[in-house]
Every structure is written in structure tokens, then in C-alpha cells.
Specification:
Shape: globular
Number of helices: 6
CATH class: Alpha Beta
CATH superfamily: Spore Coat Polysaccharide Biosynthesis Protein SpsA, Chain A
Keywords: Transferase
Structural class: alpha/beta
Number of domains: 1
CATH topology: Spore Coat Polysaccharide Biosynthesis Protein SpsA, Chain A
Radius of gyration: 16 Å
Organism: Paractinoplanes brasiliensis
Largest sheet: 7 strands, mixed
Pfam families: NTP_transf_3
Order of helices and strands: EEEHEEHEHEEHHEH
Strand content: 15-25%
Helix content: 25-40%
Distance between the termini: 26 Å
Strand order of the largest sheet: 5-4-1-6-8-7-9
Protein name: Molybdopterin-guanine dinucleotide biosynthesis protein A
GO molecular function, one term: nucleotidyltransferase activity
């Protein structure tokens, strides 16, 4: 599941997922990292020229934030899907190998999911793989506590989940590198060459 909403305020309101890195949109690059996922779900606007088939939906209300978007995307995930990747659309350096590391960690750890931890020790919450049932339960618990998911933070959601933190020890750029600014986009372009 790829969250492709957001206002991109630091990029002048650009449609971030459609911005290219190394000749492909960031959204296309993220979807390539989960090429074997079924179904592939995009929460947000899907460009008409997206080169891969996806299921799409929007959060309710529009602009309700990443937790509301996660709930909307989960509504399209069949009950028999054991693991769900929860990814931001602005991760142009994400790879299938990086997703495999998260999935294998989620399968083997006594946790409910796995996310990357960056060099500063921050969890990269929108670059993770989760047990689908646990993610659904956490969404339900948070909705019950708050009364609504509109405006809920990802941190609030993570308070309801046990997560394994994974360090990336391979050479090259970190797979969780996200493009929030024009400088980030230039850096990603250099790394992707």
C-alpha cells in the first residue's frame, strides 16, 4: 500500500509522487519495489500514465492524513493477505531487496511489523511491512480512542503496534530516503545514477 497524498508544502505544492527520479516517477519506483505484491494499492491520485495496474482509493475526508489514508487502503486489502507493506510514495530509492529485508524481519520477529531505523535512531514509519491483522486492529483501536482518524499521526498509530527496528547495512543510499524538498530530489537523482 502506497500513500500518495499530502500537500508537498516544502515543494511548492507539487504532485510529489509524479516527480521523476532517473527517468521514472517516484510512485512508479516505489511500486516497482513491491512488484510482486497483490494487490498493489495507491491511496491518493493515480496518474493516468502509471505504467502498472493498481487499485486506488482516497482517505475520507480528503486530506485527512496518513492514518486515515492507511485505513482507506486497508479497506481494499483482502482478509487473506498476511503482510502489508505501508510505504510513502516519495521513496525513490526503495528496492525490492529492502522490502524483502523488512518482510523477513516481520515474519521472524515476535513483533507486529518491521520498519527501518535511520542513523539518527528515528523510525521510518512509512517504510515498513506489517502483519495485516495487527495493522487493522491498531487502526480500529485508534479510531475508537479518538472518535475519528482524521488528523491522527502515524506516531499515534505506532503506539498500538509492536515494531522491530531494522538497520540498513548495505552499501549505497538508504532505502527510506524521502524527497520532501527540491534538494532531496536532486540528491536522489544523483544517487539513482
Amino acid at each position: 500500500m502506497v500513500l500518495a497524498g499530502g500537500a508537498a508544502r516544502r515543494m511548492g505544492g507539487a504532485d510529489k509522487p509524479t516527480l521523476p527520479v532517473a527517468g521514472q516517477s517516484m510512485l512508479t519506483r516505489v511500486l516497482a519495489a513491491v512488484h510482486d505484491a497483490d494487490p498493489r494499492i495507491v491511496v491518493g491520485r493515480v496518474p493516468p500514465d502509471l505504467p502498472v495496474p493498481v487499485h486506488s482509493t482516497r482517505e475520507d475526508p480528503p486530506g485527512g492524513g496518513p492514518v486515515a489514508a492507511t485505513a482507506a487502503g486497508l479497506a481494499l486489502v483482502p482478509d487473506d493477505v498476511t503482510y502489508t507493506a505501508l510505504l510513502a510514495a516519495d521513496l525513490p530509492l526503495l528496492t525490492g531487496e529492502a522490502i524483502d529485508v523488512l518482510r523477513l524481519t516481520a515474519e521472524s520477529a515476535p513483533m507486529q511489523g518491521a520498519v527501518y531505523r535511520d542513523a539518527e535512531g528515528r523510525r521510518q514509519m512509512l517504510c515498513g511491512v506489517w502483519r495485516t491483522a495487527a495493522l487493522r486492529q491498531a487502526i480500529d483501536q485508534l479510531a475508537e480512542e479518538r472518535g475519528k482518524l482524521d488528523g491522527a499521526s502515524v506516531r499515534e498509530l505506532m503506539d498500538h503496534l509492536r515494531v522491530a527496528e531494522v538497520s540498513w547495512r548495505r552499501p549505497g543510499p538508504p532505502p527510506w530516503f524521502d524527497c520532501d524538498t527540491d534538494d532531496d530530489l536532486r540528491t536522489a537523482e544523483q544517487w539513482a545514477r
